[in-house]
Amino acid sequence: MPNLEHPAYPAADLLHLESLVPCRESQVSMLLSIFGERQQFSFPSIFIYGHTSSGKTYVMQTLLTTLQLPHVFVNCVEYFTSRLLLEEILIQLQSCSPGTEQTSPVHCDTLNDFVRLFKQALASRELQDETLYIVLDRAEQLREMEANILPAFLRLQELTDRNVTVVLLSEIVWELFRPNIGCFEPFTMYFPDYSIGHLQKILSQNHPPEYSADFYAAYINILLGVFYMVCRDLKELRHLAALNFAKYCEPVVRGEANERDTRKLWKNIEPHLKKAMQTVYLREISSSQWERLQHDGGEPGQLKGLSAHTHVELPYYSKFLLIAAYLASYNPVRTDKRFFLKHHGKIRKTNFMKKHEKTSNHLLGPKPFPLDRLLAILYSIVDNRVAPTANIFSQITSLVTLQLLSMVGQNDQLDGPRYKCTVSLDFIRAIAR
Protein backbone atom coordinates (compact mmCIF):
# COMPACT_ATOMS: atom_id res chain seq x y z
CA MET A 1 0.00 0.00 0.00
CA PRO A 2 1.74 3.24 -1.12
CA ASN A 3 2.10 6.02 1.43
CA LEU A 4 2.11 8.83 -1.16
CA GLU A 5 -1.20 9.53 -2.88
CA HIS A 6 -2.22 12.62 -4.81
CA PRO A 7 -4.83 12.92 -7.58
CA ALA A 8 -2.75 15.40 -9.61
CA TYR A 9 0.25 13.10 -10.13
CA PRO A 10 0.50 9.62 -11.68
CA ALA A 11 0.61 6.74 -9.23
CA ALA A 12 3.75 5.34 -10.89
CA ASP A 13 5.65 8.60 -10.32
CA LEU A 14 4.55 8.73 -6.69
CA LEU A 15 5.61 5.12 -6.14
CA HIS A 16 9.01 5.85 -7.67
CA LEU A 17 9.31 8.98 -5.54
CA GLU A 18 8.51 6.99 -2.39
CA SER A 19 11.34 4.56 -3.16
CA LEU A 20 13.79 7.45 -3.54
CA VAL A 21 13.00 9.18 -0.22
CA PRO A 22 12.88 6.46 2.46
CA CYS A 23 11.85 7.58 5.96
CA ARG A 24 10.68 10.95 4.65
CA GLU A 25 7.25 9.93 3.35
CA SER A 26 5.33 12.10 5.85
CA GLN A 27 7.32 15.22 4.91
CA VAL A 28 6.86 14.57 1.17
CA SER A 29 3.15 13.99 1.67
CA MET A 30 2.88 17.30 3.52
CA LEU A 31 4.74 19.11 0.73
CA LEU A 32 2.49 17.58 -1.93
CA SER A 33 -0.61 18.73 -0.07
CA ILE A 34 0.85 22.25 0.15
CA PHE A 35 1.86 22.32 -3.51
CA GLY A 36 -1.53 21.18 -4.76
CA GLU A 37 -2.00 20.71 -8.48
CA ARG A 38 0.35 22.18 -11.07
CA GLN A 39 -1.84 25.10 -12.07
CA GLN A 40 -3.03 25.97 -8.56
CA PHE A 41 -1.51 28.80 -6.57
CA SER A 42 0.56 27.35 -3.73
CA PHE A 43 1.62 29.02 -0.47
CA PRO A 44 3.79 32.10 -1.27
CA SER A 45 6.77 30.97 0.82
CA ILE A 46 7.75 27.82 2.72
CA PHE A 47 10.50 27.65 5.33
CA ILE A 48 12.01 24.18 5.89
CA TYR A 49 14.55 23.77 8.69
CA GLY A 50 16.40 20.94 10.37
CA HIS A 51 19.88 19.83 11.33
CA THR A 52 22.52 19.08 8.77
CA SER A 53 22.11 15.83 6.83
CA SER A 54 18.41 15.53 7.66
CA GLY A 55 17.38 15.24 3.99
CA LYS A 56 16.06 18.76 3.30
CA THR A 57 18.00 19.44 0.10
CA TYR A 58 17.80 15.88 -1.19
CA VAL A 59 14.05 15.59 -0.63
CA MET A 60 13.31 18.91 -2.38
CA GLN A 61 15.53 18.11 -5.35
CA THR A 62 14.14 14.60 -5.70
CA LEU A 63 10.52 15.74 -5.34
CA LEU A 64 10.76 18.52 -7.93
CA THR A 65 12.81 16.48 -10.40
CA THR A 66 10.78 13.26 -10.17
CA LEU A 67 7.44 15.02 -10.65
CA GLN A 68 8.98 17.32 -13.32
CA LEU A 69 7.83 20.51 -11.64
CA PRO A 70 9.38 23.75 -13.01
CA HIS A 71 11.87 24.94 -10.45
CA VAL A 72 15.02 26.95 -9.79
CA PHE A 73 17.53 25.62 -7.26
CA VAL A 74 20.18 28.01 -5.91
CA ASN A 75 22.75 27.58 -3.14
CA CYS A 76 23.10 30.89 -1.28
CA VAL A 77 26.66 30.08 -0.24
CA GLU A 78 27.80 29.95 -3.86
CA TYR A 79 25.89 33.12 -4.81
CA PHE A 80 26.68 35.17 -1.74
CA THR A 81 25.60 38.64 -2.90
CA SER A 82 22.13 39.82 -3.84
CA ARG A 83 23.19 40.59 -7.42
CA LEU A 84 24.73 37.14 -7.98
CA LEU A 85 21.69 35.47 -6.42
CA LEU A 86 19.09 37.37 -8.49
CA GLU A 87 21.03 36.91 -11.73
CA GLU A 88 21.44 33.16 -11.11
CA ILE A 89 17.69 32.76 -10.59
CA LEU A 90 17.00 34.54 -13.90
CA ILE A 91 19.65 32.49 -15.72
CA GLN A 92 18.20 29.21 -14.48
CA LEU A 93 14.72 30.45 -15.33
CA GLN A 94 15.74 30.77 -18.95
CA SER A 95 16.32 27.02 -19.19
CA CYS A 96 13.21 25.89 -17.28
CA SER A 97 11.17 25.18 -20.42
CA PRO A 98 12.43 22.34 -22.62
CA GLY A 99 13.40 23.14 -26.18
CA THR A 100 14.47 26.73 -25.50
CA GLU A 101 17.85 28.16 -26.34
CA GLN A 102 20.12 29.86 -23.84
CA THR A 103 19.86 33.62 -24.20
CA SER A 104 22.50 36.20 -23.40
CA PRO A 105 23.53 36.69 -19.75
CA VAL A 106 21.24 38.93 -17.75
CA HIS A 107 22.29 41.87 -15.60
CA CYS A 108 20.22 42.63 -12.54
CA ASP A 109 21.38 45.31 -10.12
CA THR A 110 18.25 46.00 -8.09
CA LEU A 111 15.18 44.21 -6.85
CA ASN A 112 12.98 46.30 -9.17
CA ASP A 113 14.97 45.06 -12.15
CA PHE A 114 14.59 41.49 -10.89
CA VAL A 115 10.80 41.73 -10.64
CA ARG A 116 10.56 43.22 -14.16
CA LEU A 117 12.90 40.64 -15.74
CA PHE A 118 11.26 37.83 -13.77
CA LYS A 119 7.81 38.66 -15.18
CA GLN A 120 9.25 38.91 -18.68
CA ALA A 121 10.96 35.52 -18.36
CA LEU A 122 7.76 33.82 -17.15
CA ALA A 123 5.77 35.32 -20.05
CA SER A 124 8.34 34.32 -22.68
CA ARG A 125 8.77 30.78 -21.36
CA GLU A 126 5.04 30.07 -21.10
CA LEU A 127 5.17 29.22 -17.40
CA GLN A 128 2.11 31.20 -16.32
CA ASP A 129 -0.08 28.09 -16.10
CA GLU A 130 2.17 26.17 -13.69
CA THR A 131 3.59 26.93 -10.27
CA LEU A 132 7.27 27.86 -10.39
CA TYR A 133 9.29 26.85 -7.33
CA ILE A 134 12.36 28.85 -6.33
CA VAL A 135 14.40 26.86 -3.79
CA LEU A 136 17.07 28.75 -1.85
CA ASP A 137 19.40 26.32 -0.08
CA ARG A 138 21.49 27.51 2.89
CA ALA A 139 19.05 30.38 3.22
CA GLU A 140 20.67 31.67 6.41
CA GLN A 141 23.08 33.52 4.12
CA LEU A 142 20.20 35.83 3.14
CA ARG A 143 20.57 37.53 6.51
CA GLU A 144 23.97 38.85 5.38
CA MET A 145 22.53 40.52 2.27
CA GLU A 146 20.54 43.73 1.88
CA ALA A 147 17.65 44.15 4.31
CA ASN A 148 14.98 44.04 1.56
CA ILE A 149 16.04 40.73 -0.01
CA LEU A 150 14.50 38.32 2.52
CA PRO A 151 11.11 40.15 2.83
CA ALA A 152 10.94 40.39 -0.97
CA PHE A 153 11.44 36.65 -1.46
CA LEU A 154 8.82 35.88 1.19
CA ARG A 155 6.17 37.77 -0.80
CA LEU A 156 7.52 37.36 -4.31
CA GLN A 157 4.15 35.97 -5.41
CA GLU A 158 2.51 39.25 -4.47
CA LEU A 159 5.23 41.45 -5.98
CA THR A 160 5.24 39.69 -9.34
CA ASP A 161 1.56 38.71 -9.44
CA ARG A 162 2.65 35.32 -10.75
CA ASN A 163 2.20 31.72 -9.63
CA VAL A 164 5.51 31.32 -7.80
CA THR A 165 6.49 29.70 -4.49
CA VAL A 166 9.77 30.39 -2.70
CA VAL A 167 11.17 27.55 -0.56
CA LEU A 168 13.86 28.40 2.00
CA LEU A 169 16.08 25.58 3.31
CA SER A 170 18.04 26.29 6.48
CA GLU A 171 19.67 24.69 9.50
CA ILE A 172 18.47 27.38 11.91
CA VAL A 173 15.00 28.22 13.15
CA TRP A 174 12.75 30.91 11.69
CA GLU A 175 12.97 33.08 14.80
CA LEU A 176 16.59 33.87 13.88
CA PHE A 177 15.45 35.05 10.44
CA ARG A 178 12.53 37.30 11.32
CA PRO A 179 13.44 41.00 10.75
CA ASN A 180 12.75 43.51 13.49
CA ILE A 181 10.44 45.50 11.19
CA GLY A 182 8.30 42.43 10.51
CA CYS A 183 7.67 40.51 7.32
CA PHE A 184 5.33 38.02 5.68
CA GLU A 185 5.36 34.82 7.75
CA PRO A 186 6.18 31.71 5.71
CA PHE A 187 4.76 28.26 6.25
CA THR A 188 7.33 26.56 8.51
CA MET A 189 8.13 22.88 8.30
CA TYR A 190 10.57 20.85 10.41
CA PHE A 191 12.68 17.92 9.22
CA PRO A 192 13.63 15.85 12.30
CA ASP A 193 16.90 13.95 12.57
CA TYR A 194 17.02 10.40 11.31
CA SER A 195 16.59 7.85 14.09
CA ILE A 196 18.87 4.84 14.34
CA GLY A 197 16.16 2.74 12.71
CA HIS A 198 15.92 5.20 9.81
CA LEU A 199 19.70 5.20 9.36
CA GLN A 200 19.72 1.40 9.41
CA LYS A 201 17.06 1.28 6.69
CA ILE A 202 18.67 3.94 4.48
CA LEU A 203 22.23 2.65 4.72
CA SER A 204 21.15 -0.96 4.18
CA GLN A 205 19.81 -0.04 0.74
CA ASN A 206 23.36 0.43 -0.57
CA HIS A 207 24.40 -3.20 -0.18
CA PRO A 208 26.78 -4.55 -2.88
CA PRO A 209 25.17 -7.01 -5.32
CA GLU A 210 27.71 -9.76 -4.56
CA TYR A 211 26.53 -9.98 -0.92
CA SER A 212 23.10 -10.62 0.49
CA ALA A 213 20.97 -7.84 1.93
CA ASP A 214 20.89 -9.50 5.37
CA PHE A 215 24.71 -9.70 5.48
CA TYR A 216 25.08 -5.99 4.69
CA ALA A 217 22.30 -5.06 7.13
CA ALA A 218 24.18 -6.91 9.90
CA TYR A 219 27.30 -4.91 9.01
CA ILE A 220 25.37 -1.61 9.14
CA ASN A 221 23.95 -2.63 12.53
CA ILE A 222 27.51 -3.14 13.86
CA LEU A 223 28.66 0.15 12.34
CA LEU A 224 25.82 2.12 13.91
CA GLY A 225 26.40 0.43 17.25
CA VAL A 226 29.90 1.92 17.26
CA PHE A 227 29.38 5.34 15.65
CA TYR A 228 25.80 6.37 16.42
CA MET A 229 26.64 8.02 19.74
CA VAL A 230 29.31 10.26 18.18
CA CYS A 231 28.07 10.71 14.62
CA ARG A 232 24.52 10.89 13.23
CA ASP A 233 25.42 12.55 9.95
CA LEU A 234 24.07 10.34 7.16
CA LYS A 235 26.78 11.41 4.70
CA GLU A 236 29.58 10.67 7.14
CA LEU A 237 28.08 7.30 8.10
CA ARG A 238 27.68 6.36 4.43
CA HIS A 239 31.34 7.26 3.88
CA LEU A 240 32.41 5.15 6.87
CA ALA A 241 30.27 2.22 5.72
CA ALA A 242 31.85 2.21 2.26
CA LEU A 243 35.35 2.64 3.68
CA ASN A 244 35.30 -0.25 6.17
CA PHE A 245 33.12 -2.85 4.43
CA ALA A 246 36.07 -4.53 2.68
CA LYS A 247 37.71 -5.18 6.05
CA TYR A 248 34.47 -6.64 7.39
CA CYS A 249 34.31 -9.09 4.48
CA GLU A 250 37.91 -10.35 4.82
CA PRO A 251 37.08 -13.51 6.87
CA VAL A 252 34.38 -14.42 4.33
CA VAL A 253 36.73 -13.84 1.37
CA ARG A 254 39.47 -15.96 2.97
CA GLY A 255 36.99 -18.74 3.77
CA GLU A 256 37.53 -18.48 7.53
CA ALA A 257 33.87 -17.67 8.22
CA ASN A 258 30.54 -17.53 6.48
CA GLU A 259 28.11 -14.62 6.32
CA ARG A 260 26.31 -15.75 9.50
CA ASP A 261 29.38 -15.91 11.75
CA THR A 262 28.66 -12.55 13.29
CA ARG A 263 31.04 -13.07 16.21
CA LYS A 264 34.09 -13.76 14.02
CA LEU A 265 33.22 -10.88 11.73
CA TRP A 266 32.85 -8.53 14.69
CA LYS A 267 36.20 -9.53 16.24
CA ASN A 268 37.88 -8.89 12.90
CA ILE A 269 36.36 -5.44 12.32
CA GLU A 270 36.32 -4.11 15.91
CA PRO A 271 39.93 -2.75 16.10
CA HIS A 272 39.59 -1.09 12.71
CA LEU A 273 36.35 0.65 13.67
CA LYS A 274 38.05 1.94 16.81
CA LYS A 275 40.82 3.42 14.67
CA ALA A 276 38.24 4.93 12.33
CA MET A 277 36.55 6.50 15.37
CA GLN A 278 39.58 8.82 15.68
CA THR A 279 39.01 10.28 12.20
CA VAL A 280 35.25 10.94 12.20
CA TYR A 281 34.61 14.22 10.34
CA LEU A 282 38.35 15.00 10.13
CA ARG A 283 39.27 13.59 6.69
CA GLU A 284 42.95 13.76 7.64
CA ILE A 285 43.88 11.04 5.16
CA SER A 286 42.33 10.04 1.84
CA SER A 287 40.20 6.95 1.38
CA SER A 288 42.97 5.21 -0.57
CA GLN A 289 45.47 5.85 2.24
CA TRP A 290 43.02 4.48 4.81
CA GLU A 291 42.43 1.33 2.75
CA ARG A 292 46.20 0.87 2.37
CA LEU A 293 46.67 1.14 6.14
CA GLN A 294 43.94 -1.42 6.69
CA HIS A 295 45.52 -3.77 4.17
CA ASP A 296 48.96 -3.46 5.78
CA GLY A 297 47.47 -4.28 9.17
CA GLY A 298 49.30 -1.59 11.08
CA GLU A 299 48.79 -1.15 14.79
CA PRO A 300 47.03 1.99 16.05
CA GLY A 301 50.27 3.29 17.56
CA GLN A 302 52.09 2.89 14.24
CA LEU A 303 49.51 4.74 12.15
CA LYS A 304 50.51 8.25 11.24
CA GLY A 305 48.02 10.89 10.31
CA LEU A 306 45.10 9.43 12.24
CA SER A 307 45.08 12.08 14.90
CA ALA A 308 44.56 15.81 14.60
CA HIS A 309 47.28 16.25 17.23
CA THR A 310 50.05 15.39 14.75
CA HIS A 311 48.82 18.00 12.29
CA VAL A 312 48.66 21.03 14.55
CA GLU A 313 50.99 23.75 13.35
CA LEU A 314 51.69 26.37 16.00
CA PRO A 315 54.33 29.09 16.38
CA TYR A 316 57.44 28.23 18.38
CA TYR A 317 56.49 29.94 21.63
CA SER A 318 52.82 28.94 21.32
CA LYS A 319 53.87 25.31 21.71
CA PHE A 320 55.77 26.11 24.90
CA LEU A 321 52.85 28.21 26.14
CA LEU A 322 50.51 25.27 25.60
CA ILE A 323 52.84 22.89 27.42
CA ALA A 324 53.18 25.37 30.29
CA ALA A 325 49.40 25.76 30.44
CA TYR A 326 48.96 21.99 30.63
CA LEU A 327 51.49 21.76 33.46
CA ALA A 328 49.77 24.59 35.30
CA SER A 329 46.33 22.98 34.90
CA TYR A 330 47.24 19.49 36.07
CA ASN A 331 50.01 20.10 38.62
CA PRO A 332 49.20 21.55 42.05
CA VAL A 333 50.69 24.95 42.86
CA ARG A 334 52.73 23.49 45.73
CA THR A 335 54.72 21.32 43.27
CA ASP A 336 55.95 24.22 41.11
CA LYS A 337 58.97 24.80 43.32
CA ARG A 338 59.95 21.13 43.25
CA PHE A 339 59.51 20.77 39.46
CA PHE A 340 60.79 24.05 38.06
CA LEU A 341 63.55 25.23 40.43
CA LYS A 342 67.03 23.68 40.42
CA HIS A 343 67.81 24.47 44.06
CA HIS A 344 64.45 24.02 45.71
CA GLY A 345 65.77 22.57 48.93
CA LYS A 346 64.51 19.50 50.72
CA ILE A 347 60.75 18.91 50.54
CA ARG A 348 59.06 16.96 53.31
CA LYS A 349 56.50 14.41 52.14
CA THR A 350 53.72 14.86 54.62
CA ASN A 351 50.75 12.58 55.03
CA PHE A 352 48.61 15.31 53.52
CA MET A 353 50.56 15.18 50.25
CA LYS A 354 50.55 11.40 50.09
CA LYS A 355 46.82 11.30 50.68
CA HIS A 356 46.05 13.64 47.82
CA GLU A 357 48.63 12.29 45.38
CA LYS A 358 46.86 8.94 45.30
CA THR A 359 44.18 10.46 43.01
CA SER A 360 45.34 11.19 39.48
CA ASN A 361 44.94 14.83 38.52
CA HIS A 362 43.92 13.74 35.02
CA LEU A 363 40.80 12.19 36.48
CA LEU A 364 39.94 15.40 38.31
CA GLY A 365 40.19 17.53 35.16
CA PRO A 366 42.08 20.76 34.45
CA LYS A 367 42.30 23.45 37.14
CA PRO A 368 42.34 27.20 36.43
CA PHE A 369 45.59 29.11 36.83
CA PRO A 370 46.57 32.80 36.74
CA LEU A 371 48.56 34.43 33.95
CA ASP A 372 51.65 35.07 36.07
CA ARG A 373 51.96 31.36 36.93
CA LEU A 374 51.71 30.45 33.24
CA LEU A 375 54.52 32.88 32.36
CA ALA A 376 56.67 31.67 35.28
CA ILE A 377 56.45 28.05 34.08
CA LEU A 378 57.12 29.19 30.49
CA TYR A 379 60.34 30.96 31.53
CA SER A 380 61.53 27.84 33.34
CA ILE A 381 60.91 25.33 30.52
CA VAL A 382 62.28 27.43 27.63
CA ASP A 383 66.05 27.15 27.26
CA ASN A 384 66.74 30.71 26.15
CA ARG A 385 65.56 33.88 27.84
CA VAL A 386 62.04 34.98 26.88
CA ALA A 387 61.01 38.61 27.20
CA PRO A 388 57.33 39.25 28.12
CA THR A 389 56.58 41.11 24.89
CA ALA A 390 53.28 41.82 23.16
CA ASN A 391 54.01 38.87 20.86
CA ILE A 392 53.80 36.43 23.78
CA PHE A 393 50.51 37.89 25.02
CA SER A 394 49.00 37.86 21.52
CA GLN A 395 49.88 34.16 21.19
CA ILE A 396 48.02 33.46 24.44
CA THR A 397 44.97 35.20 22.94
CA SER A 398 45.35 33.10 19.78
CA LEU A 399 45.38 29.90 21.83
CA VAL A 400 42.13 31.00 23.48
CA THR A 401 40.63 31.73 20.04
CA LEU A 402 41.66 28.25 18.85
CA GLN A 403 39.94 26.83 21.97
CA LEU A 404 43.17 25.19 23.11
CA LEU A 405 42.94 27.38 26.21
CA SER A 406 39.78 28.71 27.81
CA MET A 407 39.46 31.88 29.83
CA VAL A 408 37.81 31.39 33.20
CA GLY A 409 35.76 34.26 34.60
CA GLN A 410 35.47 37.78 33.19
CA ASN A 411 38.08 39.90 31.42
CA ASP A 412 37.78 42.74 33.92
CA GLN A 413 38.98 40.78 36.95
CA LEU A 414 41.14 42.84 39.30
CA ASP A 415 43.60 40.01 39.97
CA GLY A 416 44.26 39.34 36.28
CA PRO A 417 42.85 36.75 33.85
CA ARG A 418 42.71 33.04 34.70
CA TYR A 419 42.95 30.28 32.12
CA LYS A 420 42.39 26.57 31.84
CA CYS A 421 44.03 24.12 29.41
CA THR A 422 41.47 22.18 27.35
CA VAL A 423 43.66 19.73 25.41
CA SER A 424 44.41 16.11 26.25
CA LEU A 425 47.62 14.41 27.33
CA ASP A 426 48.11 12.83 23.88
CA PHE A 427 47.87 16.27 22.32
CA ILE A 428 50.58 17.64 24.61
CA ARG A 429 52.80 14.61 24.00
CA ALA A 430 52.56 15.24 20.25
CA ILE A 431 53.36 18.92 20.72
CA ALA A 432 56.26 18.15 23.10
CA ARG A 433 57.91 15.80 20.59
UniProtKB/TrEMBL annotation:
Residue span(s) of domain Origin recognition complex subunit 5 C-terminal: 314-433
Q: Which residues form the ORC5 lid domain?
A: 216-283
Coiled-coil blocks: none
Subcellular location(s) per record: Nucleus
Q: Is the ATP-binding keyword given for this protein?
A: yes
Q: State the similarity comment.
A: Belongs to the ORC5 family.
A GO BP annotation: DNA replication initiation
Q: What does this protein do?
A: Component of the origin recognition complex (ORC) that binds origins of replication. DNA-binding is ATP-dependent. The specific DNA sequences that define origins of replication have not been identified yet. ORC is required to assemble the pre-replication complex necessary to initiate DNA replication.
A single Gene Ontology CC term:
nuclear origin of replication recognition complex
Q: Which gene encodes it?
A: Orc5
InterPro entries named among the record's database cross-references: AAA_16, ORC5, ORC5_C, ORC5_lid, P-loop_NTPase
Provide this UniProt record's keywords sorted from A to Z.
ATP-binding, DNA replication, Nucleotide-binding, Nucleus
Domain Orc1-like AAA ATPase spans what residues?
21-167
The record describes its quaternary structure and partners as: Component of ORC, a complex composed of at least 6 subunits: ORC1, ORC2, ORC3, ORC4, ORC5 and ORC6. ORC is regulated in a cell-cycle dependent manner. It is sequentially assembled at the exit from anaphase of mitosis and disassembled as cells enter S phase.
The UniProt record lists the keyword DNA-binding: no
Per the UniProt record, the lineage of the source organism begins with: Eukaryota, Metazoa, Chordata, Craniata, Vertebrata
Task: State the protein's name.
Answer: Origin recognition complex subunit 5
Single annotated GO MF: DNA replication origin binding
